[in-house]
Amino acid sequence: MNFRHLLPPVLLLSAASAFAADPGPASAAIPDHPLATYASLGSSFAGDTGLAKLGWSEAQFNAFLDGIRATYRGQPYALIEDAGRLRQEVQERLKQASAEVERGQLDFSQPGRVEAYMKEAVKQYKLQLSDSGLAYGINEGGSNFHPGPGDTVVLTCEAVAADRETPLPGLALKEQRAKVADLLPGLNEAVQMMSPRSSALVVLPPDLSFGSGPWPDGVPRGSPILCMLQLHEIVTPP
Q1: Is 6 helix (H, G, I), strand (E, B) or coil?
Q2: Residue 3 has what pLDDT?
Q3: pLDDT tens digits, residue range 182-191?
Q4: What is the number of domains present in the chain?
Q5: Sheet order of strands, 152-160 included
Q6: Residue 200 has pLDDT above 50, yes or no
Q7: Mind giving me the DSSP string for 153-189?
Q8: What are the C-alpha distances in Å from 129 to residues 48, 122, 135, 146?
Q9: Which one of 103, 136, 143, 209 counts the least CB within 10 Å of its CB?
């Protein structure tokens, strides 16, 4: 299961094309805003597209802006062969820059990185945050019954690393029986909020997974873990 956000990073040239599109009839024009608002949007656009990462000179940047202005006025420059090569160079550089940013975001040895990751996960997946720090979203199964820590449940769990791509087979369960109290602390908490035939997406901060104890191979120490859970059945203990 791939938890990665479906929308890729904005590429400079595709975004520039959108800004340079025909503004349409006057009736559809965006209402006027203070010029400072447009300047703010420009800075945001430049930051989102990684413009500063390209290392262009002032003359190169101004020429690029001239092309945008010309298209906006309905008099675009012809796309010459060298411009096609430049487009490819820009796209490749922005991909590299995006990868560099992502590697930095996944360096959880840096202070505040776990907290920032959890905050972004809550926003991105529209999750709730419990008092313990567990991020969770539950699709109810239509039952009012919830397991307790002493119950045994039939559970499916798919887990991935913080990059939202790397599977963690050591944490996977496939319709297996498990005692709630024996699960990782974050899973223990999440399962007790679930009912039979419900599913949940949970993001475990390190304190609710392996904490200061030994971490399994393939799971970077101190990193959050994402799990998709399905609670199939509550097994009444003997």
Answers
A1: coil
A2: 46
A3: 999 999 999 9
A4: 2
A5: 128-129, 135-139, 198-204, 225-235, 152-160, 173-179
A6: yes
A7: EEEEEEEE-TTS-SB-GGG-EEEEEEEGGGS-HHHHH
A8: 28, 7, 5, 19
A9: 103
Tokens matching residue 170: 């050591």
| Tokens (6 digits) for 226 | 């994402």
Identity of the amino acid at 61: F
Q: How many residues does the chain have?
A: 238
Helix axis angle for 12-19 and 81-105, nearest 10°, is 120
Q: Is 128 helix (H, G, I), strand (E, B) or coil?
A: strand
- CA 40 from centre of chain: 25
The residue segments making up the domain with residue 88 are 12-105
Q: Is residue 78 part of a domain?
A: yes
Q: How far is CA 137 from the centre of its chain?
A: 15
DSSP label of 225: E
Distance of CA 141 to the CA centre of its chain: 26
Is this prediction's pTM over 0.85?
no
User: Is residue 224 within 8 Å of residue 121, measured between CB atoms?
Assistant: yes
Q: Dump pLDDT digits (tens) for 131-167.
A: 999 999 999 877 889 999 999 999 999 999 998 889 9
Task: Flag whether pLDDT at 6 surpasses 60.
Answer: no
Residue 177 CB neighbour total at 10 angstroms: 12
* 184 within some domain: yes
pLDDT tens digit string along 77-132? Answer: 998 989 888 888 888 777 766 665 555 557 888 889 999 999 999 999 999 999 99
| Last residue within a domain, chosen from 46, 74, 105 | 105
